[in-house]
Amino acid sequence: MTDRTAGQTLQSNLSDFAGADILGLLRRNAGLILLVTLLGSALTAFWLSRQAPIYVSSAAVVLRGSELPSDTTQNTQNQTTLNPTQVFTEVEVMSSRDFVRRLAERLDLFDDPRYNPALAPDDGVDMVAWLQPRLDLLTERVFPGRDFRFPLPVGSDARMMTEEAQHDAVVNKLLSQYDVSASDRHNVVRIQIRHPNPELAAYFANEAANLYIDMRATNQQRDLDRLITFLTQRSNEIADGLKQTQSEAAALIRDHGLHDTTATQLLIAENIRLENMAAVADPGTERTREINTRLAEIDTLLDARVAAEIALAERELALKTETSRFDSVRQRLDELEAQRQTPNFDVDQIARAEIPLRPISPSVGATMAIAVLAFGFIGIVLVILRENIDHRVTSSADAEKATGAEVATSLPKLNRRMLRKKGGPAGVIATHADASYANGVSSLVTLAMRDAQIGKAPVVLIGSSISGEGKSSISSAMAVSASRDDLRVLLIDFDTHHMGASTLLNAVRNRHRMTALLNGEVTASDVIRPTKHAGVDVMNFKPGSRVSRRAVRSNSAAEIFAELRIDYDLIIIDTPPFLAAEEAGRLGGIADKAILVCGWRMCSQQAFSATAQRMRKSDLEIAGIVINGVDPRYAKSYGYYAYTTSYDEKGYA
């Protein structure tokens, strides 16, 4: 079968199943679905019983903007506002392995055998050490004298772990119990601990918050100390600069007599007087030369004094500026020293972790509910897959689809105790012990007698695909049922290998072969045997006789059956299975119609379809199909013989 054909077949099966009765499917497979659900629920309950309870406790810290100034020379504090990026950065810090390692150190988990695998007690048997010498002994006995062995793989011993590996193992386990989260709408960071011990869950969460607060406090204190050191150094530098400037100003005042504020005015006045005198004096005279010399001296003194006054003004301005800076630095330094004495940190714990009262997992109720639903769904899926994969004939629709013929009736599975007590299906019909079965067989007799002519008994062939589908049982039951309607019935047992119909009717086996009858060596009366059921005769032959194709189609065979049609009202032929013996197909020229028997959930649809095709090729008209052996527990879900069952329950049968 090609992939394309297989795909088309699967698609056809799925489309056929989509139109099936879903409720009937669930009803007839309720046991399997219930079994899968109960088994899954039991496994879930066992798993839950093996799970340690997990308690969750959480603490919360709030982050505030830093109060440390960005400009150390300002007189005011610059409080910054945190943004979501900074908050989530702190979350990453608290989630880092370095932080968790510090938390493990704070909690002394490196020395805790519950976290450090190297310290865990050795409560088991080293299977490798126990098995290796025994394997070596077995190898020595199997291969004596040979020097080789099969070393077993040795697993890693936790007690041989390095210190770094132990620390990593502790950190990994603590990380699996530790979670940090934050929201972009506020500056609150939540620390959550999952632990089998409720007290330790709360303790670990609070210790994690305390560790983070201590780290932030340490960092903030370090920043304060750094700023105080810087400002102290800066104030000393400014003070030294002030001293230097003051010394320079004092030297200018002292050297140039700047403490006498009238000296400059006097020099200017003297300069003006000398210039006036030089203007009226005769040039070239001694007096004029003395006046000019004095003017030059006055100008030199004025220039030096003005330069000194300018330098003094610069020193005074520098003193004023540096004094202001010095005062600002000292003021900020005093504030930082006060803040160090009474710290106001930028993080605080706003919610302490409390000891949880009940575990968060495992949630027994929710888990079991989900398990019931999940395994119930799995059971339904398994049922659907089984129904789709199972190609056996389980319903009338399967039989009709495989053969193209109509299902005449379906017969229930008879109780074994009833069969032993009543002497087989014929006895059940004779005593009317099972109304549903009797009504179904009666409908087959009606089908066989349809269109029957007076003086010409119909010949009905009862065939099946494989052995064990109830062909002989139905043949004998039909014979007895027809006799109860005052019909003379002849059952011809052509299944010479098993002779099931003859056995069920307790007919004496014949010593003549089939060819002897067809060749005229014996007459029909010689091979016909009566039964204990009035009106029912059996024609059988020596076991192992073959059905010759030429003999069956001979004129003598036609003459024999012409006489039998006159002597009897109904002739039933029991044949070997069509797929097991080719002889069954040789009887097509004798029978008027055929009834195809299908064992419920026994024959595959492919085999059933092949049987129908072989019967048609043998010129057999399939008058109807009978599905035999339907389990009454599933009958209603498959829609079998619902009419006959209700008919019997109402007392009409």
Give a description of the structure:
The chain is an alpha/beta fold. Among the domains are: 20-51 and 362-388, no CATH class; 238-347; 399-649, Rossmann fold. The protein is 56% helix and 11% strand. The protein has 24 helices and 12 strands. The strands form 2 sheets. An 8-stranded mixed sheet has the order 5-12-11-6-10-7-9-8, with helices on both faces. A hairpin with a 5-residue loop joins strand 8 and strand 9. Helix 2 (22-28) packs antiparallel against helix 23 and helix 15 (435-449) packs across helix 24. The longest helix is centred in the middle third of the chain and has 59 residues, at 198-256. It is rod-shaped, with a radius of gyration of 58 Å. The protein starts with a helix and ends with a helix. Mean pLDDT is 83; it is low at 14-20, 68-78 and 641-653.
CATH class descriptor name of one domain: Alpha Beta
The Rg value, from CA coordinates, equals 58 Å
Largest sheet: 8 strands, mixed
Per CATH, the architecture of one domain is: 3-Layer(aba) Sandwich
The order of strands across the largest sheet is 5-12-11-6-10-7-9-8
Overall strand count:
12
Categorize the overall geometry. rod-shaped
Q: What is the compact description of this entry?
A:
With about 650 residues, the chain is α/β, with parallel strands linked by helices. Among the domains are: about 20-50 and about 360-390, no CATH class; about 240-345; about 400-650, Rossmann fold, CATH 3.40.50.
Features:
alpha/beta; Rossmann fold; 4-stranded antiparallel β-sheet; 24 helices; 11% strand; disordered C terminus
